[in-house]
Amino acid sequence: MANCCNAQRCTCRVTAGPGITVDGNGSPAAPYVISSGASGVALKGTDTTSIDVTVSGSGTAADPYDVSTAVILDPTPPGGGSNLIEEGPDGLYVECADVRTCFLAGDGAAYDPTNGEISARLSAEAGNTVVFGPDGGLYSAGGGGGTPTVVTAGETSTANNTVSGTGSAGDPYVVTTDVIVDPAPPAGGTNLLQAGPDGLYVECADVRGCFSAGDGAAYDPATGVISARLSTDAGNTTVFGADGGLYTPAASTALEAADTPTVDVTVTGTGTAADPYQVAAAVILDPAPPGGGANLLEEGPDGLYVECADVRTCITAGGGAAYTPGTGEVEARLSTDAGNQVAFGTDGGLFVPPGAPLEIGCGLQGDGTAATPLAAFPIAGSQPWTDDWNCDPVANSTLKCDPTSGALWTPPEHSSAAVTLQQNHPLGTPTIGVTGGFVLVDSTAWSEGTYTADSLSACRGISFSTRFTGHVELTWPANAQFDLGYAVQINGGGLAVRLTHSVLANGPARHERYSFGVAQAVVLPPHTGYSVRVYPAVRVTAGTVTFNQWITDTDLIAMTR
Fold it and tell me: Alpha-carbon distance 391 to 389, whole Å?
């Protein structure tokens, strides 16, 4: 290479190795340039038995090294149990609830793993005199040149990583990992796991606060000592024996009398062979029972007793009964009222003679016995509704029962009336000229059809119809024109003419007779009357007309609904 440098162009061959770039041709204008694209820093993660280290990235500015660590929790601790350290979203933790499962109760002890309470356990064997006293005690009786290396800290839920330094030889990267201890474990207790200058630790003093003492037990959280607690009640004979166990001397039997509301118990003696305990009991008789009466139970020299004579005074006779307290005999008492049919039969039982036959009224048959019960008496016999009608009997039968009187009833009977009246109107022979409109031939000449309220029925409505048939004899000169009709008045109201016959065309003089009619029909509710009156009327438009006679036939028809 030295010889090449003085030449116009270096003819030496330069080859780039791995990670090396060569530019130029060796001439003064384009010398060789050798460069490296990597920083030259190698970064490797090294695991320990408790920390898992992970390195990612290539160490460039665009893809820096990312170093993260995670605490390793042993899934199968050497002792064969479960690892009490748990990993939560805020770090590692150990709670009292986790530690409490590590304990079991042995002989003479009871343990509740849900709250860590330790208490003495009493034997259920017959004759055991150890109990819990009122006070709760037992009682018996890297760096380098080139492109800068970038290192960032990756975190997990159990480890907090910190990266310091610039990555140079004088100031290398320093990756520090701190274990995260959960300040508020999920179960709500205090995290027993602590971080000290030499690592993580859980001490006995921390665990001891998870326990408390129950009845018959004493517990010192400062030392973790659990022991039985002896009652300080007077007369307690239980002590700690020479071997440290609970001990109650066999001769220290304590006997106490306990009364009940019905028995009074007395204990005498000291319990020795020379002066044994003597237990006596006396039944307590209530001198004033709650009901206010006298106590029937009595105490005699041979025991308690209640006699028939005592009980008989508790019973009295009510209505229909007789009672003799001297004998205790109870019997039925018959009324002395006149007409009483109850008597004592030959067998000593109550006896009522059969009653007289029933009197049967109109419309009934039978005598009221099972053989011939009371029944309606239809004159034409009995038959099904469907023999004559194909409609619903419930909706259409008219026989009903009045719930107030209990009487059977049917709707009022139907009624009808019809009459025909003929009236010759006293008109005389009037001649009427041009009228301009309808006029009455004679205001005193009229016919009327009237229905008087309730004349057929006071209950039902009425269908009322009237028909007026006129028979008219007329004379008129040639070329006369006229109209005939009836002026109708209803219930005294205004007149309204109904046209019945007309002569409209010019013609010769005539003398004729005509018949015509008008009708009026109405449906009336109960208690309503109705009146229809008609007057002969004429309208002359040309010439004159002479009335020789006007006769009206009035037909009346009324029918209840």
Answer: 6
pLDDT in tens, 46-67: 888 788 888 888 888 788 888 8
- Contact of 24 with 33, CB cutoff 8 Å: yes
pLDDT at 269 > cutoff 60: yes
SS3 letters for 465-476? EEEEEEEEEEEE
**SS3 track for 102-158:** CCCCCCCEEEECCCCEEEECCCCCCCCCEEECCCCCEEECCCCCCCCCCEEEECCCC
Contacts of residue 393, defined as CB under 8 A and 6 or more positions apart, other chains included, come to 385
Each residue's pLDDT tens digit, 75-126: 888 888 888 888 888 888 888 888 888 888 888 888 888 888 888 888 888 7
Burial 435-460 (b: 16+ CB within 10 A, else e): eeebeebeeebbbbbebeeeebbeeb
Left (φ > 0), alpha (ψ -120 to 50) or beta: where does 492 sit?
left
Phi, psi for residue 435 in degrees, rounded to 5: -105, -25
Q: In sequence order, what are the residues at sequence separation of 6 or more whose Cβ sits closer than 8 angstroms to the Cβ of residue 386?
A: none
How far is it, in rounded angstroms, from Cα 84 to Cα 41? 41
pTM of this prediction exceeds 0.70? no
Contacts 24+ apart (CB under 8 A), 314-322: none
Dump strand ranges (E) for 216-328. Answer: 217-220, 225-228, 239-240, 246-247, 263-268, 278-283, 298-300, 303-305, 321-324
Strands 225-228, 217-220: pairing is antiparallel
The tokens 């004759």 sit on which residue?
A: 127
List the structure tokens of 201. 């630790």
Q: Exposed (0-12), middle (13-18) or buried (19+): which is 93, by Cβ within 10 Å?
A: buried
Give the pLDDT confidence of 496-550 residue by residue, as tens digits. 999 999 999 999 999 999 999 999 999 999 999 999 999 999 999 999 999 999 9
The C-alpha atoms of residue 132 and residue 232 are separated, in whole angstroms, by 11
In a 10 Å sphere around its CB, with 0-12 CB exposed, 13-18 middle and 19+ buried, how is residue 282 labelled? exposed
Nearest CA to 538 out of 499, 496, 491, 488 is that of: 499
Asked if residues 143 and 149 have their Cβ atoms less than 8 Å apart, the reply is: yes
In contact, 42 and 55? CB cutoff 8 Å: no
As a whole number of angstroms, the distance between CA 458 and CA 451 comes to 13
Residues 45, 161: Cα–Cα separation, whole Å? 13
Q: What is the DSSP string of 495-553?
A: EEEEEEEEE-S----EEEEEEEEEEEEEEE-TT--EEEEEEEEEEEEES-EEEEEEEEE
Element (H, E) at 65: strand 65-71
**Dist CA 235 CA 242 (whole Å):** 21
Question: Comparing C-alpha atoms, which of 42, 67, 56, 72 is closest to residue 174?
Answer: 67
**210 DSSP 8-state letter:** T
Distance between CA atoms of residues 152 and 550, nearest Å: 134
Contact between 326 and 308 under an 8 Å Cβ cutoff? The reply is no
Report CA Rg, the chain: 66
Cα 207 from Cα 118, distance rounded (Å): 14
Q: Which amino acid is at 361?
A: G
